[in-house]
Design goal:
This protein is of the alpha/beta class. 43% of the residues lie in helices and 17% in strands. Strands 1, 2, 3, 4, 5, 6, 7, 8 and 9 form a 9-stranded mixed sheet that branches. Helix 2 links the parallel strand 2 and strand 3. Helix 7 packs antiparallel against helix 8. It is globular, with a radius of gyration of 21 Å. It starts with 5 loop residues before the first strand and ends with a helix.
């Protein structure tokens, strides 16, 4: 019997240095019934030529060229044309082990799971504390999305049965294109709320490359501000009070850190500074007065709250 097809969606933006290794690691999978959807999000390097060559070389490759609208839009373009019974994602600067999809799909089918999850290598061997294959019910699977020592809310270490990505009207679930950071966690939370079972395989099939120039590694950018939108969405939706409190702390820290790292030329950023100062006040009282939040976390929040404004004030005085 022919194996079910898996659609692998790869959003690409200016990563020609890494792209060949990434795509070849996908095409060389031991699981052969694959559909590789390359979405060029308006790259200005040699991505277009490279993708055309991949498409010419291997009939399993579909290539889509779009204007630069962000990773959420690129993934949505892929979802709308995907024909596989399984759906997964790979970031274009990463690469995967040759048996990744063979192993994960085997786990899904043997355990009648909705989602298969694997470990990942990001250069930090201490992160993954789950050291065995494990079946997870909905509640435990959701909690691990928010656990830094587990598989977290990434897209690329998960394989989804396509049917779990549909809503009640049978429309494919799309990404919130406003979000540039944590869009994967918001998406996964909505999907995981609907599943019955997930299967986790601790083996590190996925290799995550941390680039200095990536959005996550830049000190300040307008894209980082969408973190606050994502956190607000999650805080509103979550039922688990412990996770909600953790996200409120993360929200205050993110607003304060963005304020701290904002450009020295305040004339061009006054509106952003005003919004960030307002944002960091949003959950401050709730955090400080919450008896379920430990004193150490409260002290950290107070420090995060006041330090950015002090630094900005000092910088302003030093330029006068």
């Amino acid at each position: 019997m022919e194996k079910k097809k898996i659609s692998i969606i790869v959003p690409i933006f200016n990563v020609e240095k890494y792209l060949k290794k990434c795509v070849e690691s996908i095409l060389n999978q031991t699981y052969k019934n694959i559909e590789v959807i390359l979405i060029n999000d308006g790259s200005t390097d040699n991505t277009n030529e490279m993708c055309l060559e991949f498409e010419r070389r291997d009939q399993r490759v579909k290539y889509i060229l779009t204007k630069n609208k962000g990773v959420g839009h690129a993934r949505n373009e892929g979802l709308l044309v995907a024909t596989g019974k399984y759906i997964t994602f790979v970031d274009a600067d990463d690469y995967i082990e040759a048996n990744m999809y063979e192993e994960i799909i085997k786990d899904i089918e043997e355990n009648d799971a909705d989602i298969g999850i694997c470990g990942y290598d990001d250069g930090n061997s201490e992160k993954d504390k789950i050291l065995e294959k494990k079946i997870l019910d909905r509640e435990e699977a959701i909690k691990n999305l928010f656990n830094d020592n587990s598989y977290r809310g990434f897209l690329w270490n998960k394989v989804y049965k396509k049917e779990v990505l549909y809503d009640e009207e049978k429309n494919i679930k799309l990404f919130d294109e406003r979000l540039k950071i944590l869009e994967d966690l918001v998406y996964n939370y909505d999907i995981f709320k609907k599943i019955n079972k997930a299967i986790y395989n601790h083996k590190k099939f996925y290799h995550y490359i941390q680039r200095e120039s990536s959005v996550l590694n830049t000190k300040f950018s307008k894209a980082r501000l969408t973190t606050l939108i994502a956190l607000d969405i999650l805080i509103e939706k979550l039922q688990d009070e412990y996770i909600k409190n953790e996200l409120k702390i993360h929200y205050l820290r993110s607003a304060s850190h963005s304020l701290y790292y904002i450009k020295k030329d305040k004339k061009n950023n006054l509106d952003i500074i005003k919004k960030l100062r307002k944002a960091k006040k949003k959950y401050k009282t709730d955090i400080i007065c919450n008896k379920n939040i430990d004193i150490k976390s409260k002290i950290k929040c107070i420090i995060w709250y006041y330090v950015p404004d002090i630094v900005i004030l000092m910088n302003q005085k030093s330029t006068k």
